[in-house]
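Late entry, written up from scratch paper. The run itself happened at the end of the previous shift, but nothing got recorded in the book at the time, so transcribing now.
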Amino acid sequence: QGKFLIGSILGLMSEGSIVIGEVVAVTGGFSTYAPTVIPAKYEILGDDMQILSVKLDEGESVTAEPGSMNFMHPNVHMTVNCKDCFGRFCSGESCIMSNYRAITSGGYVALTSKVPGKIIPIELKNHGGKLRARTSTFFASIGEVNLDYNLDCNCLTCCCGGQGFIHQSIIGDGIAFITAMGTILQKELADKETLIVDTHSLVALEDLARPGIL
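Output as recorded:
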């Protein structure tokens, strides 16, 4: 039996889903949301095909997929990072990540995803420090965030569950930004509660949740 069990799950529904944000509507236990932003640190601009605008003080930095920079302040210096490239590659990301660091105060950088859709901020420390997601879901991060991979060795779930053999693991206590298309919904499951989800609609979930098949 396929189940999402144990503790809470942030299920991203639609063509993307998992969320943290302000609840704007509730139906059947699901909640749609408006992203929670921190104006002093970052903002999400636009309704779709969104832009992530990050403000940077001296020495602060943001990491993002290569090719995602839209515009930036002249005092922001870009470098590349090849650290832990094997885990990133296996999770569906590029071996190389771009890093944008402010040389002086007052810096900013605007980032856009390669996938047209919505940008979802996730404060990992509020979700056990780990999130499991579809491959290539990660977009950018602020603070201590690392990408790794998780293997699903169950033949039934990896072949029939729609998530594949390799899942993306986003680990740390910083803020991760993931991308998804469509209307974003959040569902928190009670202990041992089960939810049936279309195989292509689940975007990410907390590590306590256990997906399966029916």
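The longest helix spans residues 85-90.
(Scratch paper discarded after transcription.)
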